[in-house]
Backbone:
């Protein structure tokens, strides 16, 4: 499908059209020829007029404001209305295509109040009332967490890029244990060195640790001895007295045993994530999981026995072959366990996932099953005493929906909020990790990338340590600025 434009809003135009035609190959072409095909999209912004045309239908409006952002929004609204007219489908998030709608809602609230933010979402961005209400509630809980962060705050992320097998929907940089067994020991040795080096830098920069997150991949592919070594390195290297939360993703129930859980708990982690995704065994088989629902339930009970008091469980709405009724059954059974938090993801068809490479399309019906699944989540989890504390979106999601973290009072996952809001610096260790250096009280963010794959990480380790020196440079340059705002 060709999209012809005569304006500078290439990115927004393409992403908006992709919401309606996620399975089409889109080509955005600058300049509008005299002759175009019926299925070509025309988007023009010229001389105070916005005009769009598609399949014989057109939309247009006049604008006087010369502010670029305002013109871009009006162009998007005009194009959106045309696409709704042609397809008969409205998008739950209206013209919003970004990852962080809650961050936008907060900015609008800070500038004009919560009522202003609600009206702007509804009337200017065409977000549905349901998603606007969800945004307002979520932003209220996020705001309390963000207030904990200080100008010299940071969080630590540690990557374990190994999994028992690769799920069909996965696009993360992780390798199956069968293929990467020989890399685990040398990888862990270097990872511990990077953790120690990162701690030295954090001390030199006078940073305060707020949260730790060990993710992947599946960290519990490491045996108990290796987990103990990693946890011990973290505790010896960093000042943990200020750490508010320490999370380890146990992820796959088939990688969990008593010794590993004990090593994690004794290592100071107060939050663990056990991720069933679904309790439908047939769906688990389809997506490439090597465990069944009974293993999930057993792993959960074992974590309780060992002593964990904050267990998070992840679910995915819209998995292949899953039905609304099956999903509801999964959620009901999870609620019966009463975990402290539940994260509900919507299936995202990433281009590098096996699902996408095998030609599975995104559903584009007016009401995809995932939408009904999420509606049930909101109803059921609210009734069970959970509230939404963070929310984000991804590209190529079923139904153009969202991911939401739900928790009971006092159990919000603060790392999730810090990292999604880009509140403060995140220092990343391990393959695929990205350190994000945040200038306080601003939107400025610098990134330092580690090598993606374990073998690259091992071979290029010294170079990565050299890259970490950029953290010192960043904070040296901020010294005067920080001294003023920390008074």
Residues:
């Amino acid at each position: 499908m060709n999209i012809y434009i005569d304006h500078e809003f290439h990115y927004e135009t393409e992403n908006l059209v992709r919401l309606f035609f996620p399975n089409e190959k889109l080509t955005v072409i600058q300049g509008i020829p005299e002759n175009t095909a019926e299925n070509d999209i025309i988007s023009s912004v010229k001389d105070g007029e916005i005009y769009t045309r598609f399949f014989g239908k057109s939309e247009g409006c006049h604008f006087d404001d010369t502010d670029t952002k305002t013109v871009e929004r009006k162009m998007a609204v005009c194009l959106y209305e045309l696409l709704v007219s042609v397809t008969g489908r409205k998008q739950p998030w209206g013209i919003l295509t970004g990852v962080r709608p809650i961050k936008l809602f907060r900015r609008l609230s800070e500038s004009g109040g919560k009522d202003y933010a609600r009206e702007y979402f509804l009337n200017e961005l065409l977000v549905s009332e349901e998603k606007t209400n969800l945004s307002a509630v979520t932003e209220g809980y996020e705001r309390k967490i963000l207030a904990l962060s200080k100008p010299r705050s940071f969080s630590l992320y540690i990557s374990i890029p190994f999994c028992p097998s690769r799920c069909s929907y996965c696009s993360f940089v992780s390798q199956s244990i069968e293929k990467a067994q020989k890399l685990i020991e040398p990888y862990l040795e270097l990872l511990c060195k990077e953790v120690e080096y990162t701690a030295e830098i954090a001390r030199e920069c006078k940073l305060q640790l707020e949260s730790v997150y060990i993710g992947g991949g599946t960290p519990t592919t490491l045996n108990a001895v290796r987990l103990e070594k990693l946890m011990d390195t973290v505790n010896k290297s960093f000042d943990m007295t200020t750490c508010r939360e320490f999370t380890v993703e146990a992820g796959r129930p088939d990688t969990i045993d008593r010794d590993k859980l004990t090593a994690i708990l004794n290592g100071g982690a107060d939050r663990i994530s056990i991720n069933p995704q679904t309790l439908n065994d047939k769906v688990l088989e389809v997506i490439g999981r090597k465990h069944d629902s009974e293993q999930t339930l057993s792993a959960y009970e074992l974590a309780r026995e060992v002593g964990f008091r904050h267990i998070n469980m992840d679910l995915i709405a819209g998995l292949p072959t899953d039905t609304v009724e099956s999903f509801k059954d999964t959620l009901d059974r999870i609620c019966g366990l009463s975990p402290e938090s539940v994260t509900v993801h919507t299936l995202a068809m990433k281009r590098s996932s096996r699902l996408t490479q095998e030609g599975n399309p995104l559903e584009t019906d007016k009401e995809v099953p995932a939408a009904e699944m999420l509606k049930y989540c909101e109803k059921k989890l609210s009734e069970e005493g959970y509230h939404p504390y963070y929310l984000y979106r991804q590209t190529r999601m079923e139904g153009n929906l969202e991911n939401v973290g739900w928790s009971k009072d006092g159990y919000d996952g603060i790392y999730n909020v810090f990292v999604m809001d880009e509140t403060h610096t995140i220092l990343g260790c391990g393959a695929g990790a990205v350190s994000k250096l945040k200038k306080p009280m601003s939107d400025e963010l610098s990134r330092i990338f580690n090598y993606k794959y374990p073998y690259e990480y091992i071979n290029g380790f010294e170079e990565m340590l050299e890259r970490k020196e950029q953290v010192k440079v960043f904070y040296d340059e901020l010294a005067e600025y920080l001294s003023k705002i920390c008074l």
Notes: The CA atoms of residues 9 and 69 lie 10 Å apart. The longest strand covers residues 208-216. The chain has a mean pLDDT of 92.
